[in-house]
Amino acid sequence: MGLLDGLLGGVVGAAMVNVVNSVIEKHGGVQGIVKEFETKGLGETVKSWVSTGPNQPLSPDQVHSVLGADLLQQLAAKSGLSIEDLKQKLAQVLPQAVDKLTPGGTIPKTA
């Protein structure tokens, strides 16, 4: 995922690139993660990340409700972070990551 690494590295920091890549991969790409947020009632929030306007914030509890305890536990084990720290970091970086991966307000077909 070299392209994602390049796009995200400066935004989320090297330590979180693998975590964000894993989240996106597990959902089948940006389209999948957007759909998951929409399904969980956060459609307006995730649409703000895709659009060219300001990004709506995400709370750690919303991260938990969308990604689920199992995925968070796997990612926490992989990253060496506690689940609480991971939720906090993902709440900060997911909006930025989706924003960077959807230039011009368009969801890429393959990322």
Any overview of this molecule?
The chain has 6 helices and no strands. Helices cover 73% and strands 0% of the residues. By secondary structure, it is an all-alpha fold. The protein has one domain: Arc Repressor Mutant, subunit A (Orthogonal Bundle). The longest helix has 20 residues, at 60-79. Helix 4 crosses helix 6 (83-101) and helix 5 crosses helix 6 (83-101). The mean pLDDT is 86.
The ordered H/E elements are: HHHHHH
**Rg, alpha carbons:** 13 Å
Assigned CATH architecture: Orthogonal Bundle
Report the CATH topology name: Arc Repressor Mutant, subunit A
Extract low-pLDDT stretches.
Answer: none
What structural class is derived from the secondary structure elements?
Answer: mainly alpha
Report the average pLDDT across residues. Answer: 86
Distance between the termini: 9 Å
Sketch the major β-sheet. Answer: none
CATH class division: Mainly Alpha
What is the assigned CATH homologous superfamily? YidB-like
Total number of strands: 0
Number of domains: 1
β-sheet strand percentage: under 5%
Number of helices: 6
Apparent shape: globular
- Helical amount among residues, as a percent range? over 70%
Salient structural properties:
111 residues; Arc Repressor Mutant, subunit A; mainly alpha; 73% helix
Task: Give the arrangement of secondary structure elements.
Blueprint: H1 2-12, H2 14-26, H3 30-39, H4 43-50, H5 60-79, H6 83-101
Helix pairs in contact: 1-2, 1-6, 2-5, 3-4, 4-6, 5-6
